[in-house]
Write a structure and sequence with these properties.
Strand content: 5-15%
Number of helices: 9
Distance between the termini: 26 Å
Largest sheet: 6 strands, parallel
Order of helices and strands: EEHHHHEHEHEHEHEEHEE
CATH superfamily of the largest domain: HAD superfamily/HAD-like
Shape: globular
Number of domains: 2
Length: 236
């Protein structure tokens, strides 16, 4: 008797793809246009991960600056418009992503994305990177009007992708992803090469991987099919 498929729900920026160059380049374009200083690329690990609006706010805070809600909204809208013009100029999938998806798919795995990126650029980026069709559902910050770390985007993504919570696993790179998975009572694997100000081990994910080649075996630790077709979810 074949076990139910596992749904792998991925974060996007810092997990599936290294997008810092295009995001920070867009941020500098907006900040310089507003008369603010550019932001060093090396600061991206602590600034990225919560969406474009939060990125702008964090960059302003780093300069001890503050703008009105109206001005912030205008900067956010112009950020989105400019970002789409260069969305994959420098962005690339992390090494081993395609091979990991192939291996997991051979095991019957299904895939979805749950990101704090706005849905339209999230889909556009995945199309440019040639993997959009691998995902049964792509959830952005505005898809359900709720952002991570609220668990509802993850839970709704699992449902929309045709998965089940008991057979789902989150793969992310940050405190936000781990908190989201914990709140949804879904196991979480963290990559250690993403965008986080502290080492991801500080947030106690269930597993940590340093390359996508490690993902299939790390995920298998949670979903080991027993004889007779029943599954044991193993938290480790």
């Amino acid at each position: 008797m074949k076990s139910d498929p596992v749904l792998y729900v991925f974060d996007l920026d810092g997990t599936l793809a290294d997008t810092a160059g295009d995001l920070m380049g867009t941020l500098d374009h907006i900040m310089l246009g507003e008369g603010f200083a550019p932001t060093p690329l090396e600061d991206s690990r602590s600034l990225l991960g919560a969406g474009a609006r939060a990125l702008i706010v964090r960059a302003l805070e780093a300069q001890d600056k503050e703008v009105s809600p109206e001005r912030l909204n205008d900067m956010f809208e112009r950020f989105l418009a400019h970002y789409e013009t260069r969305i994959a100029d420098e962005s690339r999938l992390f090494p081993g992503v395609v091979e990991a998806l192939d291996a997991l798919e051979q095991r019957g795995g299904l895939f979805a994305v749950c990101t704090n990126k706005v849905e339209r650029p999230a889909k556009l980026l995945l199309e440019k990177l040639g993997v959009a069709d691998r995902f049964a559902f792509i959830c952005g910050q505005d898809t359900f009007g709720i952002a991570k770390p609220d668990p509802r985007p993850l839970l709704k993504t699992i449902e929309a992708a045709g998965g089940e919570v008991r057979r789902a696993i989150m793969i992310g790179d940050s405190k936000t992803d781990i908190a989201t998975a914990r709140a949804a009572e879904v196991p979480v694997i963290a990559v250690d090469f993403g965008y986080t100000d502290l080492p991801v081990s500080e947030y106690a994910p269930d597993r940590i991987i340093s390359h996508f080649s490690e993902l299939p075996d790390a995920a298998a630790a949670f979903f080991a099919a027993s004889e007779g077709g029943k599954d044991d979810v193993m938290a480790g």
